[in-house]
Specification:
Layout lengths: L4 H29 L3 E9 L5 E7 L2 E5 L3 E5 L9 E2 L28 E2 L6 E2 L17 E5 L4 E6 L7 E7 L9 H27 L8 E13 L2 E11 L2 E5 L3 E7 L8 E2 L13 E3 L5 E5 L6 E2 L22 E6 L3 E6 L9 E7 L1
Parallel strand pairs: 1-4, 3-10, 6-8, 11-14, 13-21, 17-19
Antiparallel strand pairs: 1-2, 2-12, 4-8, 5-7, 9-10, 11-12, 14-19, 15-18, 15-20, 16-17, 20-21
The chain binds copper (II) ion.
């Protein structure tokens, strides 16, 4: 029946067009109903642990409502992953007992969800000190049930922030996990390179006023579209210094926001507490005089002043220097009591 053939052909074409449209629609819609689990890292370090990327890698994500992000913590430096409520006052990293986090307040369990109404924070996560290459890497995940733009921070490092853009399901996401992996890799490489370049800057620390200079860490803050990251060299530069009896060595922090100590003898339970044998010089720095090889000296935090901001009280000048005068010959080993697990250690050799 030649008359009907065109009609059948027409129906088949129409059917196949509808079928194709349905297929295309289902391909567009189905992936969005699957709740994605995204991946990111918190920090990176060189193999000697001296160069530290104090950074969320990457530090911005665009995800859908209902998605989650799992952060891994692959370094020997401490970090937290923390979402404070909008406008919430930032809590201290540690409470009365050093190493015990205050939280926001308290800690929330792995897999918590965040929508801005209540804070979420991991505990302090890091690799165990003697972790081998097969050690379990700690991780923490957060899910985001509703749309919004949410900042996240590390409570230990002031210049370490990021943002998650949570979009409605109807919106397309600009990037896939491969993009974020590449971004994390390139940021990590650039931050670690920047940290290790601090060696040259630290080695040229000022030796003025007849004092011998050692840099207590160097670093710099890098800003991305998602927030700030810090590249720090957790080292004393120069690592070994040779002086004469009666000389004074001066340590200077060249890191924008990291706390270090200069600690001789017994490691104190709380590195923030200065030993009682210090006096304060008229220009600000605390100063110890070592009289016997067994003297215990702890500087407390040697730190820069935080960045001032409008409407907040002005910060005091930083305690960026610390001095020790050596009255006996010998070899004096010292540590940073915050970063000794990163091998931040040094030696003063005092000749008669
Ligand atoms: Cu340190």
């Amino acid at each position: 029946m030649p008359f009907r053939e065109p009609l059948i052909a027409f129906n088949l074409t129409r059917f196949s067009a509808i079928f194709r449209l349905a297929l295309v629609l289902s391909l567009l819609i189905v992936p969005q109903l699957v709740q994605a689990q995204w991946q990111a890292s918190v920090g990176a370090e060189s193999t000697d642990r001296g160069s530290q990327a104090l950074a969320f890698l990457p530090n911005q994500f665009w995800i859908h409502a209902g998605d989650g992000i799992r952060w891994t913590f692959p370094t020997h430096e401490r970090h937290t992953l923390t979402f404070l409520k909008p406008g919430q006052t930032r809590p201290p990293g540690f409470g009365p007992v050093f190493g015990v986090p205050v939280g926001c307040p308290g800690l929330t369990p792995d897999g918590s969800s965040f929508d801005g109404s209540a804070c979420v924070t991991s505990g302090v996560l890091l690799l165990p000190e003697d972790a081998g290459p097969t050690a379990d890497v700690p991780s923490y995940s957060v899910t985001f049930p509703s749309a919004g733009n949410f900042k996240f921070v590390c409570l230990i490092h002031a210049d370490m922030t990021g943002v998650v853009h949570v979009l409605n399901l109807s919106e397309l996401l600009p990037h896939d996990q491969d993009f974020y992996d590449r971004e994390a890799q390139s940021e990590q490489a650039s931050l670690l390179a920047s940290a290790s370049r601090g060696e040259a800057r630290g080695a040229s620390v000022d030796e003025g006023r007849a004092q011998r200079g050692v840099a207590a860490g160097t670093g710099e803050i890098v800003v991305t579209g998602g927030g700030s990251q810090t590249a720090s060299l957790m080292r004393f530069l120069r690592n070994t210094i040779v002086v004469q009896v009666g000389d004074t060595v001066e340590w200077t922090s060249l890191d924008p926001s990291i706390n270090h100590t200069v600690t001789f003898g017994a490691e104190p339970a709380d590195p923030r507490v200065r030993s009682t044998n210090l006096t304060q010089d008229s220009d600000g720095p605390w100063h110890a005089v070592i009289i016997t090889p067994a003297d215990n000296v702890n500087s407390g935090f040697v730190s820069p002043a935080p960045q001032d901001r409008a409407t907040l009280p002005q910060a005091n000048p930083g305690l960026t220097r610390f001095r020790v005068t050596f009255m006996v010959p010998g070899t004096f080993n010292y540590i940073c009591a915050v970063h000794d697990q990163l091998n931040m250690k040094g030696t003063v050799i005092v000749h008669p």
